[in-house]
Amino acid sequence: MKVLDLRCSHGHGFEGWFASNEAFETQLAAGLVECPVCADTRIVKLLSAPRLNLGNAKAPAEAAAAASSSASPAPAKAQAPAELSPEARWMRAVREVLAKTEDVGDRFADEARRMHYGEAEERGIRGQATREQTEALLEEGIPVLPLAIPAALKETLQ
Question: Composition bias, kind Low complexity: at what positions (predicted)?
C-alpha cells in the first residue's frame, strides 16, 4: 500500500492511498484522482520521506523505554481545531452542516419561504437554488447562505 501526499492546482493538500505507484499513475491519467475539497483533477504528487517498517529491531535502551511506556499508555489526543489545516477545518465545518440540516433538494427556495412565513416548522435546511431564487429570497428578507459542498462529502465513503 502506498500512501502519497498530494496537492491540487489550487494548493489543497491531501493524502491518497494506492495499491502501488503504477495504480496511482493509472488513476491520475484517467482523471480519477481528485481533490476532496474542490474536486480539481490537476493533481501532483509531493515529495515525502519513505516510512520504513523494521519490525522489532530496537536498541536495548529503546526497548526498555517502550516497555515502560506501554505499562501506562497516554490516551490518544485528537487534533484541536486550531492545529488543523484550513482545508481540514473547512471540511469539518461542512460535515457539521450536513449532519445538522435536512436536504430539501431543489425545493429549497419554496421551503425557506414556507418556514419564513410560518407555514412550516423552523429547522435547518440545505438544497439547491438558482441565482435568481437566491436573490429573490434575500430581497424578501429571508437569510440564505451559499455553501459549496465538495463532491467527496456528497457520497458515502467505501
Answer: 58-83
Summarize pLDDT for 101-134 with one digit per residue, the tens: 999 999 999 999 999 999 999 999 999 999 999 9
| CB within 8 Å of 140: residues ≥ 6 apart | 113, 116
| Same structural domain, 90 and 142 | yes
Residue 94 lies inside a defined structural domain of this protein? yes
Question: What total of structural domains would you count in the chain?
Answer: 2
Q: Residue 115: count other Cβ atoms within 10 Å of its Cβ.
A: 15
- Please give the Cα distance from 139 to 155 (Å, whole number): 33
Structural domain contains residue 115:
yes
Residue 157 lies in a domain: no
CA 20, 23, 25, 28 torsion-angle sign:
negative
First and final C-alpha spacing in the chain: 17
Q: What is the pLDDT of residues 17-41, one digit of tens each?
A: 898 889 999 999 999 998 888 888 9
Calculate helix-pair angle for 131-139, 108-116, nearest 10 degrees. Answer: 10
Over residues 91-102, mean pLDDT: 86
Write the single-letter amino acid at 6.
L
